[in-house]
Amino acid sequence: xxxxxxxxxxxxxxxxxxxxxxxxxxxxxxxxxxxxxxxxxxxxxxxxxxxxxxxxxxxxxxxxxxxxxxxxxxxxxxxxxxxxxxxxxxxxxxxxxxxxxxxxxxxxxxxxxxxxxxxxxxxxxxxxxxxxxxxxxxxxxxxxxxxxxxxxxxxxxxxxxxxxxxxxxxxxxxxxxxxxxxxxxxxxxxxxxxxxxxxxxxxxxxxxxxxxxxxxxxxxxxxxxxxxxxxxxxxxxxxxxxxxxxxxxxxxxxxxxxxxxxxxxxxxxxxxxxxxxxxxxxxxxxxxxxxxxxxxxxxxxxxxxxxxxxxxxxxxxxxxxxxxxxxxxxxxxxxxxxxxxxxxxxxxxxxxxxxxxxxxxxxxxxxxxxxxxxxxxxxxxxxxxxxxxx
Length: 390
Description:
transferase; 3 strands; Citrate synthase; three-stranded antiparallel β-sheet; Citrate_synthase_sf; mainly alpha; acyltransferase activity, acyl groups converted into alkyl on transfer; about 55% helix; about 400 residues; tricarboxylic acid cycle; CATH 1.10.230.10
């Protein structure tokens, strides 16, 4: 993704003055509402910047490789330039330099809403620019326009057995959407390498637009007797259309989905799923296949209740050596993505049984981990809320 703007390595190798200039330049908002037009202007500049950067620093050594790194799945190994987010050990994730509270404040919101729209974070991730409301509205309409699923994908989803895991269905559907790939067609026809980004853009936009339809179709088949997901409303944002397709009309749930999708939009480049996507994409596979590779992670979890939480935590430590949702390879404090979900739950659903369960774990798990000496960071990460509550 060489067209993205702020290199993780640049602040280390450029002078502070030059690095600051790069950041400020990246945050100048383009007047155009069409994302492809904005990228057409940005990409040649970024390609030139990266070319110059490589010429100046291409032979610079940025780290050493140890045997522990190799056996540890490349942990701590510098092997990827990743520009859209950085996971700081002390303050958590930053998207293009902005913390989650800053994104909540700066990014456009739906009329009457309080949480940022994921369309806004997508624009920020891709361009390095905080978008205007007009740019976000354009993106909502563009995704609505691209959302329809091909009939063969719908038929495939309808024919899956109900005992097939939803994530297996999701991954299979994304792989099947490869039939629609503009990049795959253009590549087979020998398109010039300089044009690759245009077809990656088209595939990525189509895929993002279709993902809520795929997810809603799977959900309806499994939990709503195969009822229709309904039609996309071009006047609604991406999250609102998704909650409608799921069959929920509570405005608070839509607000939660906006927050949830925003904070889960990116996770640095070194975790398993992001690395898999980059690895497959580096072989010039199209975005559908790259994203499908990223999704092949199923996690089994023990069912718990208020009466067996302490036992659950200790059993996890015996069997799998970790407590899912607690600790982090990088973070050394409570994950701010956990914190913003907790704050939302305290505000909107403090008496929800599942939230009470998660809140109780927050009181129990860190003490057990500290007592057992099992974690440098005993505090919850994003999965403690994401996978256990919603």
